[in-house]
C-alpha cells in the first residue's frame, strides 16, 4: 500500500529544510525547529495539520518581526519548489493578515514555487473588495503563476479550500478577472479560468451559459475554456448546455450490447464493460457517451458520478462499439464501500442501459466493511 501523502513531511525533510533556512539566516536553530515540528502528536496529524505545525514551528524559530521572517523565506523560495512547500504561503495566511502590503508581495513570490491559492482566501474574507482589486491587478502580471493565482484563488468552491460564501452568492467581482484572462497564452491559466467558471455554474448556471455564448468563437484557447467550464452542466444534461455544443437528446438509439463483468468483486479490483449501439438511418448524429456509477456512501446512501467515455459525430445507420475497465480501487478523492453499485450507460444525457455489481470488502479488510 502506498504511503499517505502526509509522509512527505518527516524528520529527513524537516532537517534538510532547516539546513536551507540556516544558509539564509545564520541564527536559525535547526534542531529546535525540527524538535518543535515533531513534538507531541505528530504521528497522528494529517497532512494539513502537519503543514500548519511546520508553519508554527517556523514562527517560533525565525525572526520575531514578520517582515524579517518573510525576508528569510523569500531568500530560499527559489530552491523550495513543489507541493511540500505550501507552508510558505501558509505562513503568510497564519501571520500576515495585519500586514497587507508585505503579505501581498510574499504571496506573489511564493505562488511560483507551490501555490498561494489557499492562502489568499482569508484575505478575501477579511476585505473582499480590496483583495479582489489586488487579484484583478495580478491578472495582468507578467508571471503566469501570479495570473493563475488571480483566478484560482477566488474560485468559489476551490477543492480542499474553504468555500467563499459571498462569491458563491454573487460571483460578479470574479468576472472582470476571468474576462481579462479568457485569452491568456498560458494553458495553466486558462485551465484555472475554466475551473472557476465550472464552480460558478453550480450556483449560477445561466450566468455561465451566457458567458459561454459570448466567448465561444473568440479563439481556440477561449473555446477550450468554454467547453471545460461547461463540463458540469453537460454532466447534468442541462438542455441549453447540450444544445450549445450540438448535442441533442435521442430516444432512437438502439442498445445492442451492454455487458458488465464480473458481477461480484472486491474493493481494489476492476470490472470490464462493453457497449454496442445502433444509430438509425438519417443525418449525422453527435453522440456523448458517459458511464454513470452510483456509489454507496459509508451511511449506505448512494451518490452518482459520471465518467465521460467519448464524444463524436457518427453517420446515420452506423454501429458504435466500445468498452474499457473501471477500477474500484480507493483513491485520495474517492473511497469505496461494500454494497451494490449501479452502472449505467448514458447517451446524450439519457440512461439507456444499466447493470449492478456487488462490491465486497477487500481480503486485507478481512471481509468487514471499510
TrEMBL record:
The record ties this protein, via Pfam families, to: DNA_alkylation (PF08713)
Domain of life assignment: Bacteria
What protein does this entry describe?
DNA alkylation repair protein
Amino acid at each position: 500500500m502506498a504511503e499517505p501523502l502526509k509522509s512527505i513531511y518527516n524528520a529527513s525533510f524537516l532537517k534538510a529544510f532547516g539546513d536551507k533556512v540556516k544558509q539564509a539566516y545564520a541564527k536559525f536553530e535547526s534542531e529546535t525547529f525540527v524538535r518543535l515540528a515533531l513534538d507531541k502528536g505528530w504521528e497522528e496529524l494529517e497532512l494539513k495539520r502537519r503543514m500548519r505545525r511546520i508553519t508554527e514551528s517556523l514562527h517560533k524559530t525565525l525572526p520575531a518581526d514578520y517582515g524579517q521572517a518573510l525576508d528569510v523565506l523569500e531568500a530560499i523560495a527559489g530552491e523550495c519548489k513543489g507541493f511540500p512547500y505550501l507552508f510558505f504561503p501558509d505562513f503568510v495566511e497564519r501571520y500576515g493578515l495585519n500586514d497587507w502590503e508585505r503579505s501581498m508581495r510574499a504571496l506573489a513570490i511564493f505562488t511560483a514555487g507551490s501555490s498561494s491559492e489557499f492562502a489568499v482566501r482569508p484575505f478575501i474574507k477579511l476585505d473582499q473588495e480590496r483583495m479582489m482589486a489586488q487579484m484583478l491587478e495580478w491578472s495582468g502580471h507578467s508571471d503566469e503563476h501570479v495570473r493563475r493565482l488571480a483566478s484560482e484563488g477566488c474560485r468559489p468552491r476551490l477543492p480542499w479550500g474553504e468555500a467563499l460564501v459571498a462569491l458563491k452568492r454573487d460571483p460578479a467581482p470574479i468576472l472582470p478577472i476571468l474576462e481579462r484572462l479568457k485569452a491568456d497564452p498560458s494553458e495553466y491559466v486558462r485551465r484555472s479560468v475554466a475551473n472557476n467558471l465550472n464552480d460558478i455554474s453550480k450556483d449560477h448556471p445561466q450566468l455561465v451559459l451566457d458567458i459561454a455564448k459570448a466567448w465561444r468563437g473568440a479563439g481556440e484557447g477561449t473555446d477550450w475554456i468554454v467547453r471545460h467550464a461547461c463540463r458540469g452542466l453537460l454532466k447534468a444534461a442541462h438542455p441549453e448546455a447540450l444544445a450549445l455544443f450540438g448535442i441533442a437528446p435521442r430516444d432512437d438509439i438502439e442498445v445492442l450490447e451492454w455487458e458488465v463483468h464480473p458481477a461480484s468483486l472486491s474493493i481494489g479490483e476492476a470490472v470490464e464493460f462493453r457497449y454496442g449501439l445502433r444509430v438509425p438511418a438519417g443525418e449525422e448524429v453527435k453522440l456523448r457517451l458517459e458511464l454513470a456509477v452510483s456509489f454507496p456512501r459509508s451511511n449506505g446512501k448512494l451518490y452518482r458520478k459520471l465518467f465521460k467515455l467519448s464524444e463524436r459525430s457518427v453517420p446515420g445507420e452506423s454501429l458504435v462499439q466500445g468498452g474499457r475497465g473501471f477500477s474500484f480501487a480507493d483513491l485520495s478523492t474517492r473511497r469505496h464501500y461494500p454494497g451494490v453499485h449501479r452502472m449505467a450507460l448514458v447517451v446524450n444525457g439519457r440512461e439507456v442501459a444499466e447493470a449492478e455489481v456487488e462490491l465486497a470488502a477487500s481480503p486485507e479488510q478481512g471481509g468487514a466493511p471499510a
